[in-house]
Amino acid sequence: MNPSDHKFIEFPFADYLLVFISIIVGYVVTEFFSGWGGLIRNRKNVKLYWLHLCWTFNFFIQLIENWWWLWGNRLKLTENVYFFIFSLVSPLLFYLITVFLFPNINEEKELDFKSYYFKNSRYIFMIFCILMCVYFINNVVLKQQEINSIDNLFCISGFVFSLLYIVFKKEWFHVTGFVAGSIVFLTYVTLNSTK
């Protein structure tokens, strides 16, 4: 067969850009799996804290929801290089969250995740505040949604919850806030599951 007989199948530009984003999201997913794996492998030296563990799963589900959200924006990726760069911000923020969620576990040193969580919660929720702002900007500027749309109300509530987590360090507040915030998030995901 003559090489010139082969037809060139053009790879869609949006798909080309999505591959790069997929690599970054895949790396963030790997950080979650590595973090959980480290907890299991070093379970003798790790004192788990249920709230920290719940947050790791909550943020992972939010990363998956972010991936779902990206599909709706895939065609806009090709409109402007700035939108493509902007679309990389949320995976980067999720990566930074994993940095604070999962420490390097030393097999010779015990680690109490309750104290670790409260030591790092301020950083985790500062990053989450920024993430909510990124979502809000995406919704208002790029998607041209109304300020009071359900997506933006979720962003605003996530931002407020995060600010409260930053300010208040009491365990009861973080537990209550986690339950309330999870209900808000699951309600949001349920309402938007068909989008």
3D architecture notes:
The chain has one domain (10-191). A two-stranded parallel sheet has the order 1-2. The termini are far apart. With 195 residues, the chain is mainly α. It has helices at 13-41, 50-72, 81-101, 113-142, 150-167, 171-191; strands spanning 46-47, 111-112. It is 73% helix and 2% strand.
Question: What is the compact description of this entry?
Answer:
The protein has six helices and two strands.
List keywords for this structure.
single chain, 195 residues, mainly alpha, two-stranded parallel ribbon, 2 strands, 73% helix
The number of distinct β-strands equals 2
Relative strand content: under 5%
Summed up, the helix count is 6
Which sequence of strands runs across the widest sheet?
1-2
Work out the radius of gyration: 20 Å
* Integer tally of domains: 1
Averaged pLDDT: 86
* H/E element sequence: HEHHEHHH
CA-to-CA gap between the ends?
46 Å
Low-confidence stretches: none
Main sheet summary: 2 strands, parallel
Shape: globular
Helix proportion range? over 70%
Present the secondary structure layout.
Elements: H1 13-41, E1 46-47, H2 50-72, H3 81-101, E2 111-112, H4 113-142, H5 150-167, H6 171-191
Parallel strand pairs: 1-2
Helix pairs in contact: 1-3, 2-3, 2-6, 3-4, 4-5, 5-6
